[in-house]
Amino acid sequence: MTDESEDEGEHGHDHEGEGEGESEGYHEPDRETFSHDPVGHTEVRAGMTVGDLVEQYGRAGLGAADVHEAADVTAKMFDDDVTVFFGLAGAMAPTGMRRIVSDLIRDGYIDVLVTTGANLTHDSIEAIGGKHHHGEVHAEGKTEREHDETLRDEEVDRIYNVYLPQEHFADFEGHLREEVFPEIEETVSIERLTRELGRANAEVNDRKGIEEDAGIAAAAYENDVPVYCPAIQDSVLGLQAWMYSQTTDFSLDALADMTPLTDRAFEAEEAGAFVVGGGVPKNFTLQTMLVTPGAYDYAVQLTMDPPQTGGLSGATLDEARSWGKLEKDAENVSVYADASVTLPLIVAAARERLEST
Amino acid sequence: MTDESEDEGEHGHDHEGEGEGESEGYHEPDRETFSHDPVGHTEVRAGMTVGDLVEQYGRAGLGAADVHEAADVTAKMFDDDVTVFFGLAGAMAPTGMRRIVSDLIRDGYIDVLVTTGANLTHDSIEAIGGKHHHGEVHAEGKTEREHDETLRDEEVDRIYNVYLPQEHFADFEGHLREEVFPEIEETVSIERLTRELGRANAEVNDRKGIEEDAGIAAAAYENDVPVYCPAIQDSVLGLQAWMYSQTTDFSLDALADMTPLTDRAFEAEEAGAFVVGGGVPKNFTLQTMLVTPGAYDYAVQLTMDPPQTGGLSGATLDEARSWGKLEKDAENVSVYADASVTLPLIVAAARERLEST
Amino acid sequence: MTDESEDEGEHGHDHEGEGEGESEGYHEPDRETFSHDPVGHTEVRAGMTVGDLVEQYGRAGLGAADVHEAADVTAKMFDDDVTVFFGLAGAMAPTGMRRIVSDLIRDGYIDVLVTTGANLTHDSIEAIGGKHHHGEVHAEGKTEREHDETLRDEEVDRIYNVYLPQEHFADFEGHLREEVFPEIEETVSIERLTRELGRANAEVNDRKGIEEDAGIAAAAYENDVPVYCPAIQDSVLGLQAWMYSQTTDFSLDALADMTPLTDRAFEAEEAGAFVVGGGVPKNFTLQTMLVTPGAYDYAVQLTMDPPQTGGLSGATLDEARSWGKLEKDAENVSVYADASVTLPLIVAAARERLEST
Amino acid sequence: MTDESEDEGEHGHDHEGEGEGESEGYHEPDRETFSHDPVGHTEVRAGMTVGDLVEQYGRAGLGAADVHEAADVTAKMFDDDVTVFFGLAGAMAPTGMRRIVSDLIRDGYIDVLVTTGANLTHDSIEAIGGKHHHGEVHAEGKTEREHDETLRDEEVDRIYNVYLPQEHFADFEGHLREEVFPEIEETVSIERLTRELGRANAEVNDRKGIEEDAGIAAAAYENDVPVYCPAIQDSVLGLQAWMYSQTTDFSLDALADMTPLTDRAFEAEEAGAFVVGGGVPKNFTLQTMLVTPGAYDYAVQLTMDPPQTGGLSGATLDEARSWGKLEKDAENVSVYADASVTLPLIVAAARERLEST
């Protein structure tokens, strides 16, 4: 603090210089909160890299500064001997963020994945050759309501501006019944099911020569990254698992994953949480630290929900600190903006820093 | 449409009357989209009832009109032979909305409850004599971060502007181990656990003469309302269940609840969804209709998340229609505002309409 | 602080009693941040008044607590010898909040009004017999874009879910040219124009026997409440003023209002700011205190914009304190929710408290 | 439409091929709304350019797709013979977006600027050697409220996470009184004042050899870009103008700018609106087209406010179409995310496309 005060003094002096005596006779008040740290102005130019852009964000304030800091914390989290727990909420896989996550797994940046049954369902549909499609929130010739009524008649499901023809669910059901469920004729952990799903997705993707990559579950299977999915019932994958359980000995133990997950958190020398969106993936990723002596050393969340309503999805990471989910000296950043924009931005910038040398 | 056009013509005439010839020579264009439906202006007065206020909202546009419509749909949903599925997301029980829900259950307005482990945890803590407390997002003398570091030292957990001293979790653990778990020494459905929890909460609340009411789980138990909690692992209740399962034969079957839940949806003559917040409670409530031939006839959601980011929590109910979760002719309203404000407002107005006669 | 600590000690004791020894051997940590202040649970019943409901909000946390506190500060602001500056942003008058504001002016609760040219335009249209109409964001048979294309063909302007047939602008133009502008054939202050507008609105409303009340500008005129409108050019009223100025000696002095406004702030013994929405009305209301030695003693803002993006409209009132716009010990509350819902709620509750005795 | 149906048929065939008979016996429903347009998945890699990233966004859905489309429309707007009206709301200049705008003006991409007095104030402060500083929303050792109380004592103003020491306002006042006001001793248009300000900023910046660039007003002056500022009173610049007017013949005509602005809109062969934030700059930019026969052919808005509250700042550009502010066939995109992130992203991508050849 003393150093900063001196520093401040010097800058104060500089400032007078800059002001060229216009404030003559002006006595600057004692300033302890304020310290000299000028805002620069973001400059952009044709052909700059994403890493350059994110550096430029660091000169500015507002959310731009948060994106810069998030890239910084992400690079630290990805670079060191940090065990990275990655939380991925619902609509990210079907809407175009699938490859970013599967590439991060393949390149060893993610150690544990917590996600939703919906993401695994849509990830698998693409692994076996199905496709999501660009669509419209408001279609020509219809209100949103009429639009959705028509889509229902056309047997097309809508996820904001993305469509999924429903026959892909039938294909997915066939995949589960032929390639996944036969391997598990007993009560197993949810992680065992997601592992078999990843294996089957990888096999079918390869066997059929599907153009799209095998995806998140497959990458996790091939890289020994466990995939946890606490609310699996809350998805088409869960509905299919339930229907299969009706006629076989198969079922899922809701509690069995917590021992290996907790062990992983326990063993981590340093731990990082990278959380995209809210809901169960966010809370479950953070909660893991409740039953271990440690807590997260790094945390980045990309959230689309506001903090001021008090909901968990938009809650700050500082709030998580009161529960002991983050270390008191953890480096943590929340970015309040559309995650489909900020996730690629931050991952590209972190990769540029880590891989460019 | 013809009727409306005629209607329009008349109103057009009225309008010319109002304008007193100022627009003389003016030829009104053909108007099919527009029809005469004047906005009134909301009037308020000292001592008006909540029902009066909500009627006044109906005169205005913007979100006020949505609140009015939501009260209307809620009254229909609560009044008729409608099976009501109520989804209750995370922070509502600890922050003051517990009694509204338990009263709705007691008065027979809710038939099926879908909620989170967090709500059941905090509901139970109050049932057995613990209390949440008003707190601060920003405490005197500290940043949010320092504030939360201090709370950690003081062993107090923060939920936005609400505090919970951590010893209540120890009390809750004792309650589970003494009153709840001993009754279930095998693998059971999650609903079976929430039912035993409700029973135990009711018993202890009564035995100890706790001032606060026995709460949501207890009211559900006493009124045969099943409580579904798909992501139970994602809560302190789930953590305790896991720890208990380590040393006993107790465990939870993740899929076992889906048969009775689906049967209930199947049997409903008319079905309504009242969804507070997003996440798993919202999706699971809506998903239930995916495996039945029917769909919701009424739906109200009070959400705090914006629709334009594409996340499920803020998604419109029309989007749910494309999936077949709502009937094509369902009456549905989304209210985009803080649910801690709109839930009491809408329930009070609906009750005034239903119970005042 | 000592008192509170003692208080805390007692409550701690109470708490042990509540816990009935379940935490035996438990040593509560030193707690300075936390103090005993139990959250109650909001109860609602058929026929309760709005004041009752707002009292019940005060038992809860989250935004409900903010609404309760806002009603409290509003009652203080309205009750005492406080000069109330009321900022009213754009879409409020046409969408149904016109009467609440005109009634507040008539009943003496507002001393200075800062608003937009848009609000004055739409307020005047209704004063002279025009009407806004309930409309649709998404019309039957069209996307939002097609809907708006059709409305353009039909010569109907849309304000979210409210329509305005364009011929009302012609009526408004006639009103200005016949009743307002002839009175001012020189360069005047903007407030002089809004005053003449209020006079004319009141006269025509009365003369024609218009059913709707004469509105905000008229009430302000009749109660000697000045109406400031810094960005008047940015409205249909401003466009009309400009067109009139082309052929006459009429014009508007952009700076002339600042002396009487500043004088009013200067003379206020106590000052309160009630701000609905953001933009110029918010900033100008707050800025007024920059050039006086005093600052606001009370402030309530009902904002629909999030604070985390750094925009002024969603900025906290604490931020305004750093600029000296609020007294350091001012009572201030920000309510983050749809103002068309919260304005009637808070005004009704404040009136109930002030007028029920 | 026929073409698309055929196209769909083919894709349907492809799809069956992909599905390898798993849906055998499945009859695809008639699909007119849905058409084959697969979502790709955004890929990122170290060292990619911003243009590459924005191309990748185009493969995804959600907000990423909007950023891609916005870059596309921006490139068209900047490239062709389009007159570009640029609206710049409040906090952008002091928080780090000043250079992006001044560079766009220098490179000829902007023809007319509409902004706030606040932006011009903060832009000028930096032109003459003052600086804004990185700061904290929550400072160490304080609540937000205490933090802002302390900043007040320290004479530092806060704009979200940016600080401005108040002596810079004194320097700015000196600048106005010495370099700007003496040139205008009569009633002038607001644009005349902003032009003199730009001239003075450029001169002083050059004379003193200030490291930071001369900024937005200076660039506009040097490139004959008019700067309109309807609510100039609502800023420190306006307060200073008012104080100067008290003792001189200087004043500002609120209506005088509307003729040249409207002429410019009238003469534009094609017109584009690029709007950053809401408020008066957004509305005034759009309103300009109300009094001309034409309307905008291109429009991009980067807004931080939600549309569902009905406020103008978050209103869709389609709504503006109902008023005739946009051509019916205009290309328009709204990006709902933090503008300090999206403005640099979109400008860099548009420049890469336009300048890389």
UniProtKB/TrEMBL annotation, chains A, B, C, D:
A Pfam family recorded for this sequence: DS
Record bears the keyword Transferase: yes
Chain intervals with Basic and acidic residues compositional bias: 10-38
Record EC number: 2.5.1.46
Region (Disordered) location: 1-38
InterPro entries assigned to the protein according to its UniProt record, in alphabetical order: Deoxyhypusine_synthase, Deoxyhypusine_synthase_sf, DHS-like_NAD/FAD-binding_dom
SUPFAM superfamilies: DHS-like NAD/FAD-binding domain
Record's keyword terms, sorted: Transferase
Segments forming a coiled coil: none
One term of GO molecular function: deoxyhypusine synthase activity
Family label: Belongs to the deoxyhypusine synthase family.
Protein's UniProt name: Deoxyhypusine synthase
Species this chain originates from: Natronoglomus mannanivorans
